[in-house]
Design brief:
CATH architecture of the largest domain: Alpha-Beta Complex
CATH class of the largest domain: Alpha Beta
Number of strands: 13
Oligomer: single chain
Number of helices: 10
Structural class: alpha+beta
Order of helices and strands: HEEEHEHEEEHHHEHEHHEHEEE
Strand order of the largest sheet: 8-10-7-11-9-12-13
Strand content: 25-35%
Helix content: 25-40%
Length: 308
């Protein structure tokens, strides 16, 4: 089987959907896509590597599914409608291509998102580079630099469970439940659109950890943040599995859950309460403080940094 047979069997035969804005689909030297008047194109790219983003012994189809959904989460954070995905797959062997294709197909099944193209290469280890694109009404994309002192801080989604699942996998729990707990990333595309339509202008997806990603918002918006973890529903859920201090650490620094963290003025409380939970406020200054019932707490987990 040559490279082009592999691409056809592993990817094209499993993914037939074409988006209505696609004018020339994958298979040419490049794909061509329309952007209607009044909309802007939103593009992001992400890397996922075996041994870095997933354990080497983790099922590859689940790792690929997770990688695609994690990349799509960036579009959710911008409030965009997701339209296209491109995947460059680095493969140890042809079997890895089939497993990755299964995972990509699972991620995109029924989503209305097109696999628009990509590339394959044979190398010593498996990895994926995933590019995603969507559209958003002109001037309405949610950004990291729009928080203001006095804004509420809101959370949409769960925190801490991916890090807990990874720790358990690395500790030897390779059950189906452990696979699902780590692999089941759901990009909150619809929720991001709903937040944008409700008037949110500042948002980030929580990939590196709550404190780390809140710090990105604080730095780019030139505000401080006070986050009360007692308001986060995930904390009580995690305390059913680990002690309170470990649960707090997972919520604050676990990462990889791809919840949405956003800020908004008090005037939006009624419209946002159906989509998210209010967990804090923006204040003057530039630091991010974690609180429990209003009392400051410290965490040894500060989030993920590839070069720290």
């Amino acid at each position: 089987m040559n490279e082009f047979d592999l691409i056809d069997r592993a990817f094209r035969q499993k993914l037939h959907f074409k988006h209505s804005l696609t004018r020339i689909p994958g298979g040419d030297d490049a794909s061509v896509h329309a952007v209607p008047a009044g909309l802007e194109l939103v593009v992001s790219t992400d890397m996922s590597l075996a041994g870095v983003h997933w354990p080497h012994d983790f099922p590859l189809e689940h790792a690929a599914c997770r990688a695609v959904n994690a990349a799509l989460s960036d579009l959710a954070a911008m409030g965009a409608e997701a339209c296209w995905v491109w995947v460059c797959a680095v493969l140890r062997d042809a079997a890895a291509g089939g497993q990755m294709g299964d995972g990509i197909a699972a991620a995109l099944a029924g989503s209305g998102i097109e696999l628009a193209g990509g590339d394959t290469v044979h190398a010593a280890d498996n990895s994926l580079a995933v590019t995603v694109a969507g559209v958003v009404p002109q001037g309405k994309a949610m950004r990291r630099d729009r928080a203001q002192a006095g804004d509420d801080i809101w959370l949409c989604g769960r925190l801490g469970f991916a890090a807990l699942a990874l720790e358990r996998w690395q500790g030897g729990d390779h059950s189906d439940d452990a696979v699902r707990a780590f692999a089941d990333v759901q990009p909150l595309i619809a929720q991001g659109v709903a937040l944008r339509k409700a008037g949110v202008r500042c948002c980030i997806d929580v990939s590196d950890g709550l404190l780390a990603d809140a710090a990105h918002l604080a730095e780019q918006s030139c505000v401080g943040m006070e986050i009360d973890i007692s308001a986060i529903p995930s904390l009580a859920e995690l305390q059913q599995h680990v002690d309170p201090d470990d649960a707090a650490g997972l919520v604050l620094g676990g990462g990889e859950d791809y919840a949405l963290l956003c800020t908004a003025p008090e005037s939006l409380r009624d419209s946002l309460s159906a989509h998210a939970v209010r967990i804090g406020r923006c204040v003057a200054g530039g630091s991010v403080r974690a609180l429990r019932h209003g009392v400051g707490i410290a965490s040894s987990r500060r989030g993920f940094d590839h070069f720290a």
